[in-house]
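Observation: inputs received (chain + zinc ion).
Thought: call the complex predictor directly.
Action: predict_structure
Action Input:
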Amino acid sequence: MRKLSEDEKYMRQAIRLAKKAEENGDVPIGCIIVYEGKVIGRGYNKRNKDKSTLAHAELLAMKKAGKIIGDWRLEGCKMYVTLEPCQMCAGAIVQARIPEVVIGCMNSKAGCAGSIINLLEMPQFNHQVKVTRGVCEEECSNMLSSFFAKLREKKKAEKTCLT
Ligand SMILES: [Zn+2]
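Observation:
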């Protein structure tokens, strides 16, 4: 078997976290932040669980990383996220000056790292992020499509029970 690259190794960890979100009925999205070879922030989507639009995987991981580093600036950190960040998270990534983000799969409907807009690489901002896309892409995108397929089936079953 082929040896996993470092990016794939960390993306796998983010995928494992994403699956925890699914256990709570949240869309499976996971995020890891690495600093000097150590994972210092972990997060998975808790939007439904916490009833908060702020509970995205990236923001939760950034909060933890900031505590460990002792700074809101996450300079020297590398973020791994299973799905392309939204406008809120992409904005926070630029604000925190994270130098590098690795993305699993893209989100054509809401992604703000190249799909709808590319907030991470805008020359007009005071910070640009180095972006790598498509690491463990198939795994990340299959995880989402199977989640939504199950959701549709569940809704269909509920409807049938009512009639
Ligand atoms: Zn987000």
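Thought: report the result.
Final Answer: The radius of gyration is 16 Å. The helical segments are 6-23, 47-50, 57-69, 87-95, 137-162.
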